[in-house]
Amino acid sequence: MKTYRDIAGDGGSDIAGQVVEQTRRLSVRLSSIQHAVAVMSGKGGVGKSAVSVNLAVALAAAGCRVGLLDADINGPSVAKMTGVHGQRPTILPEGVVPVSGPAGLKVMSMDLFLASDDSPVEWQGPSSEAYVWRQTMEMTAVREFLSDTLWGDLDYLVLDLPPGTDRLPNLSGLLPKLDGCVAVTLPSEISQFVVQKSIQAARTPGVRLLGLIENMSGYLCPGCQGLQPLFPSGRVEALAARQGIPYLGRIPFDPRFSEAMDRGCPVVLGKPDSPVSAAFISIAASLRNILAHRTSPPPSSHRGVSS
Ligand SMILES: Nc1ncnc2c1ncn2[C@@H]1O[C@H](COP(=O)(O)OP(=O)(O)O)[C@@H](O)[C@H]1O
Ligand SMILES: [Mg+2]
Description:
The protein is α/β, with parallel strands linked by helices.
């Protein structure tokens, strides 16, 4: 069996031609998208997907045309959180029609193509250099999702990134139209330790750090409705100030929010008056404002749910 090292030229596959064609399709598809924003963290389990979903729904509920791309190819969760898990996108000769989610959100995720609930995404590749190989395949899959999806006219495309500090730099190479990224962190020192690395890694030319979101800030008691301390407060605002990026707001930990996500019911629609919804609506409004203006608001401004 030949490896890529044994093949002279492109082995007759016209790889160069395929890349040129895909790059052309990518720029055509993205030309109808006003703003592309990635949600990143570096750390897993901090709420990137929950934040991506609820921010996208908050924007859609405000009347914007919004697409949501699950760029976490190996651990896709956006389809389940938006309640479209089990649906299949329609495949047309000119591209793939994204699935319609809450508030008219256009959703695309690897999950929508998997055979069953427990099917993992499997990659064929050599066992040596497997990590690099897999990352290349993941990025290729994201590029295909971007270029083959019939997004139509969008005001915002939200991209939910997988964990890993190098995700944003990889994505920005692939998506020149990326307006910027928002980072999500827990108030814990461990989370911030990792998140600040991804903030540094994201400082690449042309990518704006649109802001930092504090998730699981305080515990919202379902009984008394009071906000109990969960972590020491003020640390994430201090991190945003140190990094010179806007502090977009804080979202409390609410067990009902997590249950709603499990059921595929974004709280912004299901419980628009809850403190979690208020936080997302406020953060979405700040983000729109930042994207609409060239200059960012002063770092570390106080928004979201007050503790
Ligand atoms: N503020 C919150 N309150 C309650 N549960 C939350 C909150 N943020 C996230 N979760 C839950 O925590 C889990 C991990 O969140 P997820 O968005 O999947 O993290 P990530 O994408 O960063 O790995 C999910 O079950 C999600 O519903
Ligand atoms: Mg996720």
